[in-house]
Write a structure and sequence with these properties.
There is one protein chain. This protein is α/β, with parallel strands linked by helices. It has helices spanning 6-9, 51-101, 115-127, 144-154, 172-180, 197-200, 216-228, 254-259, 265-271, 288-303, 312-320, 326-340, 353-356, 379-382, and strands spanning 15-21, 27-36, 42-50, 134-137, 162-166, 181-182, 194-195, 205-209, 230-232, 239-241, 245-250, 274-277, 309-310, 345-346, 404-407, 411-418. A hairpin with a 6-residue loop joins strand 9 and strand 10 (239-241).
């Protein structure tokens, strides 16, 4: 322990990097910080480090970093050539395998060969052959609209129109007239009759995207269309009958909305005849290389760029990212990369920094377990100590140091050694 006059130093705190040289072999650095104690008691926290050992550790760490960087560069050079050549050979093999496993008619544009994708597409292909209502479930950007288009194109209604309705994009006061149309005089500005989306989809398919955002009033009217295939235009009295196939999609959990009384239970059961869940991209990372190559080819042609391919390190960075925006986010990132690229290959430096170095929250498992302050302080000063802003001392093993050195009645110092 080093004797320090806390009373003299207290009013100059905090102090950082105070050098204490005892000899040529022993050099220490001290950091002092003030400590608040009730009843006018002055205190400080002192952390003492052995500079010699710290410098040795820094030198060894720097040397190790240099060695690691050199080995990584050499390994990347050897892997790059073999990976690029192997990737070219395997890509055609993957496309051949994919053509055998994935439903062909209607789903050509949906890229993926992971088991959960193939399972969803096979269910969709079977659903295409019947008129049962389909409910597509999945996060935004997972390809729900592509699957809806595939179901329509692969079914007997392919020659008829597929009408799309985004239930979240149409204002509530216009949704009914957009859905069912209106007659002259139905509201101000309605000078002639207009057919609605349901009527336009007669003998075809209507795709209701974001169905979870539909207002309760419209839900009951949609339920009638599903049950009776009939409706009236706004301001009209004539019942219009239609033959329409309904495909709905949502990124919300409808079961929870039903429990919260925000979605009609009877409508939910009417929609949930053939549910198809589309996995997020983070659950089918084996599809990312397929998607990246397809997007690179598409945007290279569209933007007039000549790209030979993508480096393995760059692909690894894309595969390692979690993609909260799913395939749509990946597509946008690839377009950006192609626009900004200058070389023949996409390098890892071309990948946005946020994707190469995603921010990850610190797990609570990595933090040291801190005891309550009362276990740190001596019992004779515990009752008079201000714990509203406690200071903790932690050793290199992540443990609290409960030692206290008292100096008289009006001051004390906490201390620890950096081993």
């Amino acid at each position: 322990m080093i004797n320090l006059s806390v009373t003299e130093l207290y009013h100059k705190l905090p102090l950082r990097n105070i050098a204490l040289n005892f000899s040529e072999e022993i050099s220490l650095t001290v950091d002092l910080a003030p400590f608040s104690i009730a009843a006018g008691c002055m205190g400080a926290v002192a952390v003492i480090r052995d500079d010699g050992e710290m410098q040795e550790l820094r030198d060894a760490l720097e040397s190790a970093r240099g060695t690691i960087a050199y080995l990584e560069r050499e390994l990347a050079k050897k892997q790059e050539t073999s990976w690029s050549a192997g990737r070219m050979r395997s890509q055609s093999r993957e496309e051949e395998l994919l053509s055998r496993l994935k439903p062909r008619l209607g789903f050509e544009r949906f890229i993926g060969m992971s088991p959960n994708v193939l399972e969803a597409l096979h269910i969709a292909a079977k659903a295409a052959q019947v008129d049962s209502t389909v409910l597509l479930l999945g996060e935004s950007g997972t390809g729900k609209e592509l699957v809806a288009e595939g179901i329509h194109a692969a079914g007997p209604r392919a020659g008829r129109p597929m009408i799309r309705v985004n239930c979240a994009a149409i204002p509530e006061n216009l949704l009914e007239s957009e859905f069912f149309g209106y007659e002259p005089g139905a509201f101000t500005g309605a000078v002639r009759s207009k057919p609605g989306r349901v009527e336009l989809a007669d003998r075809g398919t209507i795709f209701l995207d974001e169905i979870g955002e539909m207002e309760p009033g419209m839900q009951s009217k949609l339920l009638r269309v599903l049950q009776e295939q009939s409706f009236e235009r706004v301001g009209g009295v004539t019942t219009i009958r239609v033959d329409v196939r309904v495909i709905a999609a949502t990124n919300r959990k409808l079961e929870q909305l039903v429990q919260q009384k925000k979605f009609r239970e009877d409508l939910y059961y009417r929609l949930n005849v053939l549910p198809i869940a589309l996995p997020p991209l983070r659950e089918r990372t084996e599809d990312i290389p397929l998607l990246v190559n397809a997007f690179l080819k598409n945007f290279s042609t569209k933007l007039g760029k000549r790209l030979a391919g993508i480096r393995k390190a760059a692909m690894d960075a894309l595969v390692g990212y979690r993609w909260p925006g799913n395939v749509r986010e990946l597509q946008n990132i690839i377009e950006r990369i192609v626009v900004l690229s200058e070389g023949e290959y996409i390098e890892v430096e071309d990948i946005p920094y946020a994707i190469r170095h995603p921010a990850s929250p610190v797990s609570s498992d990595l933090l040291p377990a801190l005891d309550e302050p009362k276990d740190i302080f001596p019992s004779d000063i515990r009752e008079e100590t201000d714990f509203s802003q406690p200071t903790f001392l932690i050793d290199n093993n992540g443990k609290l140091i409960p030692s206290v050195k008292l100096f008289g009645d009006d001051c004390f110092v906490y201390y620890c050694w950096w081993d």
